[in-house]
C-alpha cells in the first residue's frame, strides 16, 4: 500500500507539472509567461516535498515544453523561460549531464551560430549568464566534459557580440571554463584565440581588461603557435591609455612566466611584456610590475639553484658604484634577462625605430629595464642597440629622449669604457649628429670616474676636432655642451689637465661663438673649478693665445659668418684681461681680417666688436705689454686704410666704425705713451689728417661727428709731442667751423665742443696780426651762430668766443661793438664784453 501511495503522489506531481505546462501552449503570452512563474512557485513550494527523482521525472516529462519557451516569439516569455531553467538546473536539479544534453543544443541554437537568432541583447546576455552558471556548477566534473565543444562554439560567437556586457561576460566565462576543465580545455583553446583578440581594441576598457585575462588563461593551454599569435596584440596593449589595461598585461605576462608548462622556451618572447611595466608612468603599475617580476625571478632562481650556486654563495655584495636610486633586482631576475637578452636586443633595436610614437616610447622604457637588469651582459649586444639609440635620441617625444639618456647612463655604469668607446667614438668621428652626442654624454656620465679618468684626454680631443665642435644646430650644440660638462666632471685632480683643459675650453668658446652665449661664462667658471683653477679668467689667460693661433687661418678670406671669424670676435669680446697679453697675435689677425680686399660685412662686424671692446680699455689693457706698438699698428696699418673713401653703404659703415675705433685708440690711456717719438707721430699725423678732414665731409652724420672728435684727439696728441703747427691748425679749424652749418644738431654741438680744444694752446705765431683774416673768419662765423634760437648753442658759441679772446682780443671787441646793434643775443653780448674787459684788465 505504501508503494502504491508513493507512486500515486509521484504521478500527481508530474500531472500537476504537466497541467501547468499546458498553459505554455496558450496563444496568450501573459498566460505563457505566468506558466513559468507558476511552475517555479510550484517546484519551490514548501508544501510539497520534491525528491531528486521527482524533479528528474518532472524534467523528463516537461523539458520539451519548458525549453521550447526559449524560442518563444515574445521576449518577456523567453526571459521568464531562462529564469525558470536557471532556477531548475542550477538551484534544484543535481549534477547530471542528462539535463545538459537537452539544454546545450538550445543555447547553441540561440546564441552559438554565426547568424543572430536571438535578436534581443538582454536575452542573449541572460543565456550567456545561464551558461556561465552551468559551467560554475559543473566545474571540474566529468559531466561537463562532453559539452566543452558546445561551450567553445557559444563563447566563440558571444565574445564577438556587439553588446559590451556580453563581450565582458564571455571573456570571464572562458576563464571559468578553462578552470572548470583544466585537463581538457587545451583541445579547444586555440579556437578561442582569434575571437577573443577582436576584443583587444574595443572602446570599453573593461572589455579589453577581461579579454587580456581570457587570453592569458587560453595561452596556458595552447601551443606555441597560439602564443605567437597573441604576442603582437598583447604588446599593443602596453600602449593603452588606461593604466589598468597595462597592469593586466603585466599580470598575465607574469602568470605565463610563472606557470606556463613550456615557459623556458618562451622567456625571450614574454619578458618584454612584464619588463615594460617596470617603468610605467603610473606608480601603482610600476609597483605591481616590480612585485611580479621579483616573484618570477625568485622562482627562476629556485628552479636553477644548482646552476646559480656559485653566484648565490659568493656574489652577495652590492657592486661598487651601483646607483642609489635603484634597488638591485634579485639574481634570478638578472640571470633570466642576461640569458635571453640576445633574443630581445635585435627586436628592441628594430622597434626603437618604429614609425609609431607609442611603440618607440614603450621600447625606450623597456631598454631602461633591460640595461639595469642585464648589467655587463649587454656588452655583446651594443653593436645592435647603439645605432638604434642614436636615432631614438632624436625623437620628437621628450619621454623617449629621456629614456635613451637614462639607458645610456646605465650602460656606461655596467659596460667597461674600453668596450663602449670602441663603438661610440668611431661613430662620432665618422659624422656625429646630436643623437650620437646625447648617448655619448650619458655613457660618460654613467661611467664611474675611477674607470674613465685616464681617458678624458682622448674624449676631449675628439670633441675639440673642428668638424665636430663647429656645429651650428641648436640641439647639437646643447648635447655637445653636455658632453663637455660630463667629461670635465670625470677629471681627477691627480692628472695633468693642460690638454684636456684646452680642448674643452676650445669647445665651449666655439659654442659661445656659434650659438647662444647665455650661461656659457658660468660653464667656463665650472670647468675652471673642476680643473682646480680659481676662476674662468685663469683659463682665458692660459688658452686665449692657443685658440687664436688655431683660428688664424686665412683671415683675409673670412666672411661675417665664417666659423673662425665668429670665434675670433667672441674671444676678443670675452677674454677681458687676456686681451692685453695677446696683443701681437690679435693685431696680426686684425690686420689680415681688415685688409682692403677682405669682405665688407665681415670688416664692419669686426670693427663693431673691436669698438665695443675698446670701450673698456682699462680692463683689456690691464696686463698689456708693448701696448704703444700695438695701438700704433692699429692706427697706421688698419684704421688709416679703412678711412679711405669708397662708394657704397657698406664702405660708408666701415669708415664710421673705423673712425669709432680710431677715436678709442687715440684717447688717453693710463700708463700708455701712445707714440714713441715725435717723428713717428708726425708720420701718422700726415696720413690721418687728410683722411679725417675728408671724413668730416662724409654723407653719414655719424662719420662727420667722429671725424671732428678724432681731429681733436689727434691735435691733443700732437701737442703732447710738440708737433702741432699753425699750418695744421689752419687746415683743420675751417673744416670744423663749417660743421656749425651742419644739418644735424649733434654734429653742430660736437663742432662747438671741439673748437675750444682746437683753438686753445694755438701756436704763438697764429696770434700775430698776420693771421688777422683767420681771426675775422672765426669770429664772424661764431657771431652768426651767437644768435641761434637754441640757448645751448648760444652758450657753446660763448665758450668758443672766450677762447678767441685769448687769441685776438682786439678783433673780438671790435666785431662785438660793430655787430652788437644787429644781434638779438644782447645778454650774451654783454657777458662777452664783460669777459673781454676783465680779460684785458688782467
TrEMBL record:
GO function terms (MF aspect): dynein intermediate chain binding
Domain Dynein axonemal assembly factor 5 TPR repeats, chain residue ranges per copy: 24-311
Organism: Brassicogethes aeneus
Protein name: Uncharacterized protein
Transmembrane segments: none
Span of the signal peptide: none
Domain Dynein axonemal assembly factor 5 HEAT-repeat: 321-514
One Gene Ontology biological process: cilium movement
GO-annotated cellular components: cytoplasm
Pfam families, sorted: HEAT_DAAF5, TPR_DNAAF5
Amino acid at each position: 500500500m505504501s508503494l502504491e501511495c508513493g507512486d500515486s503522489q509521484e504521478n500527481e506531481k508530474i500531472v500537476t507539472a504537466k497541467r501547468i505546462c499546458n498553459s505554455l501552449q496558450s496563444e496568450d503570452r501573459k498566460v505563457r509567461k505566468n506558466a513559468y512563474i507558476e511552475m517555479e512557485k510550484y517546484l519551490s513550494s514548501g508544501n510539497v516535498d520534491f525528491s531528486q527523482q521527482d524533479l528528474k521525472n518532472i524534467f523528463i516529462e516537461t523539458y520539451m515544453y519548458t525549453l521550447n519557451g526559449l524560442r518563444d516569439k515574445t521576449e518577456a516569455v523567453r526571459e521568464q523561460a531562462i529564469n525558470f531553467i536557471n532556477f531548475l538546473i542550477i538551484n534544484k536539479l543535481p549534477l547530471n549531464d542528462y539535463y545538459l544534453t537537452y539544454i546545450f543544443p538550445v543555447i547553441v541554437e540561440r546564441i552559438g551560430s554565426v547568424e543572430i537568432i536571438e535578436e534581443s541583447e538582454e536575452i542573449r546576455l541572460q543565456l550567456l549568464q545561464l551558461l556561465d552558471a552551468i559551467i560554475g556548477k559543473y566545474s571540474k566534473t566529468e559531466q561537463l566534459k562532453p559539452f566543452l565543444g558546445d561551450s567553445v562554439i557559444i563563447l566563440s560567437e558571444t565574445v564577438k557580440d556587439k553588446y559590451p556586457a556580453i563581450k565582458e561576460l564571455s571573456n570571464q566565462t572562458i576563464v571559468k571554463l578553462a578552470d572548470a576543465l583544466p585537463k581538457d580545455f587545451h583541445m579547444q583553446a586555440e579556437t578561442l584565440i582569434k575571437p577573443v583578440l577582436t576584443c583587444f581594441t574595443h572602446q570599453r576598457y573593461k572589455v579589453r581588461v577581461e579579454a587580456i585575462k581570457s587570453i592569458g588563461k587560453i595561452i596556458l593551454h595552447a601551443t606555441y603557435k597560439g602564443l605567437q599569435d597573441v604576442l603582437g596584440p598583447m604588446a599593443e596593449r602596453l600602449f593603452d591609455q588606461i593604466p589598468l589595461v597595462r597592469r593586466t598585461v603585466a599580470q598575465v605576462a607574469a602568470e605565463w612566466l610563472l606557470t606556463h608548462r613550456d615557459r623556458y622556451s618562451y622567456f625571450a618572447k614574454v619578458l618584454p611584456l612584464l619588463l615594460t611595466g617596470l617603468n610605467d608612468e603610473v606608480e601603482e603599475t610600476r609597483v605591481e610590475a616590480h612585485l611580479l617580476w621579483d616573484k618570477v625571478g625568485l622562482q627562476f632562481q629556485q628552479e636553477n639553484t644548482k646552476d646559480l650556486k656559485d653566484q648565490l654563495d659568493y656574489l652577495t655584495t652590492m657592486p661598487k658604484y651601483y646607483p642609489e636610486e635603484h634597488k638591485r633586482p634579485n639574481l634570478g631576475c638578472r640571470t633570466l634577462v642576461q640569458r635571453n637578452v640576445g633574443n630581445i636586443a635585435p627586436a628592441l633595436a628594430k622597434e626603437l625605430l618604429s614609425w609609431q610614437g607609442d611603440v618607440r616610447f614603450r621600447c625606450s622604457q623597456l631598454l631602461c629595464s633591460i640595461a639595469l637588469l642585464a648589467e655587463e651582459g649587454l656588452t655583446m649586444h651594443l653593436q645592435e642597440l647603439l645605432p638604434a639609440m642614436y636615432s631614438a635620441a632624436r625623437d620628437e617625444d621628450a619621454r623617449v629622449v629621456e629614456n635613451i639618456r637614462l639607458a645610456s647612463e646605465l650602460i656606461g655604469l655596467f659596460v667597461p669604457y674600453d668596450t663602449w668607446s670602441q663603438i661610440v667614438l668611431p661613430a662620432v668621428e665618422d659624422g656625429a649628429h646630436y643623437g650620437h652626442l646625447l648617448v655619448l654624454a650619458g655613457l660618460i656620465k654613467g661611467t664611474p670616474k675611477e674607470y674613465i679618468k685616464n681617458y678624458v684626454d682622448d674624449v676631449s680631443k675628439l670633441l675639440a676636432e673642428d668638424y665636430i665642435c663647429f656645429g651650428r644646430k641648436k640641439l647639437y650644440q646643447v648635447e655637445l655642451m653636455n658632453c663637455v660638462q660630463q667629461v670635465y666632471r670625470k677629471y681627477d685632480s691627480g692628472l695633468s689637465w693642460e690638454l684636456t683643459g684646452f680642448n674643452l675650453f676650445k669647445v665651449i668658446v666655439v659654442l659661445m661663438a656659434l650659438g647662444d652665449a647665455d650661461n656659457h661664462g658660468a660653464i667656463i667658471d665650472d670647468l675652471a673649478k673642476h680643473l682646480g683653477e680659481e676662476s674662468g679668467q685663469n683659463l682665458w689667460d692660459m688658452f686665449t693665445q692657443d685658440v687664436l693661433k688655431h683660428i688664424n687661418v686665412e683671415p683675409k678670406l673670412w666672411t661675417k659668418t665664417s666659423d673662425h671669424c665668429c670665434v675670433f670676435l667672441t674671444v676678443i669680446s670675452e677674454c677681458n684681461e687676456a686681451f692685453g697679453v695677446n696683443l701681437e697675435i690679435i693685431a696680426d689677425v686684425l690686420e689680415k681680417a681688415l685688409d682692403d680686399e677682405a669682405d665688407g660685412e665681415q670688416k664692419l662686424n669686426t670693427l663693431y666688436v673691436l669698438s665695443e671692446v675698446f670701450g673698456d680699455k682699462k680692463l683689456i689693457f690691464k696686463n698689456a705689454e708693448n701696448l704703444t706698438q700695438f695701438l700704433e699698428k692699429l692706427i697706421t696699418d688698419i684704421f688709416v686704410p679703412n678711412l679711405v673713401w669708397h662708394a657704397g653703404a657698406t664702405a660708408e659703415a666701415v669708415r664710421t666704425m673705423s673712425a669709432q675705433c680710431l677715436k678709442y685708440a687715440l684717447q688717453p690711456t693710463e700708463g700708455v705713451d701712445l707714440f714713441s717719438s715725435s717723428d713717428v707721430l708726425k708720420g701718422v699725423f700726415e696720413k690721418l689728417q687728410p683722411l679725417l678732414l675728408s671724413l668730416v665731409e662724409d654723407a653719414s652724420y655719424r662719420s662727420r661727428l667722429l671725424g671732428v672728435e678724432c681731429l681733436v684727439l689727434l691735435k691733443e696728441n700732437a701737442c703732447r709731442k710738440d708737433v702741432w703747427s699753425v699750418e695744421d691748425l689752419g687746415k683743420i679749424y675751417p673744416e670744423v667751423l663749417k660743421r656749425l652749418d651742419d644739418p644735424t644738431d649733434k654734429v653742430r654741438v660736437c663742432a662747438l665742443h671741439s673748437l675750444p680744444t682746437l683753438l686753445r694752446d694755438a701756436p704763438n705765431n697764429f696770434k700775430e696780426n698776420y693771421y688777422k683774416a683767420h681771426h675775422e673768419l672765426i669770429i664772424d662765423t661764431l657771431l652768426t651762430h651767437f644768435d641761434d634760437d637754441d640757448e645751448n648753442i648760444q652758450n657753446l658759441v660763448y665758450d668758443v668766443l672766450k677762447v678767441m679772446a685769448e687769441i685776438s682780443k682786439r678783433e673780438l671787441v671790435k666785431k662785438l661793438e660793430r655787430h652788437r646793434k644787429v644781434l638779438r643775443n644782447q645778454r650774451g653780448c654783454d657777458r662777452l664784453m664783460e669777459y673781454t674787459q676783465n680779460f684785458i684788465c688782467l
